[in-house]
Amino acid sequence: MRPILIFIVLATLAVASVFLIDGLIKDKRPATKPDLPKVMERHKLPPRDYKEKAPVIHEDYTATVVPPPSERHARPRPAASGSLAIIIDDMGKGTQEARSLIDIGVPVTFSIIPGLPKARQVAQEAQRRGIEVMIHLPMEPKGYPERRLEENGLLLSQGNEEISARMNGYFREVPQAVGANNHMGSAFTENREKMAVVLGILKEKGLFFVDSKTSAISAGESMARELGVRTASRAVFLDNIQDVGYISKQLRQAAAIARKRGSAIAICHPHPATIQALSLGLPKLRDEGITFVLASSLVH
Q: Does the pTM exceed 0.85?
């Protein structure tokens, strides 16, 4: 029995020695670090295959920082201002149309044809309501006499004395007038000699002349400047077509010219469609920055 016990004891010691030595070896091994994600160090160049993404910038923005919602889109700039004079030709047929135009509440200028049934009354009402008055000089058109003209009109066949007499008659009928423009007159305004007579009388009375430009080669404005008469010329006819949409478009064109040049003159007539278009359009343009002025303020 003794040899067997000795063998068991020795075997047990041997196994214990193996476990003891293995434990000592493990204690001496360096501890392994857990796998961590690779982190790029600062101030070192990135690897060659590294591509930095550019910040996404909306085209409306001017910086990479997104502005508050109220500032994200540029606010529309107010439209440029300009001065616009509206001359209403052919006034004097009736008083109701005159009142309708005055009631729009925007400055306009009435150009009255002497001899029309209500010429005196319209001139008086206009003066009472602060509306500027001009004389709408009836002048010979091309194609006369086939083309109708008022019986008191100015003709190329008339002598200078007759022209002067008729002009003076206009002023007796409409003494409120501060200026004049031509009614028709595509033939008369091309004649420098006859225009000199008309403009000479306007100069004597201290009145201005607006060339309605019924002829592309009218001598009216150029001669007025030569003679020292304050003058200007029409930029747009508003109502060659009596349609509210068309007239509104022409009115916008006149406003655009006024903004570009600083001022402009538009001419129209007291047609129902015109009155409707002006009633709708003039207050809107005023709110957009257009300044409506009397014709006298745009002559030089």
A: no
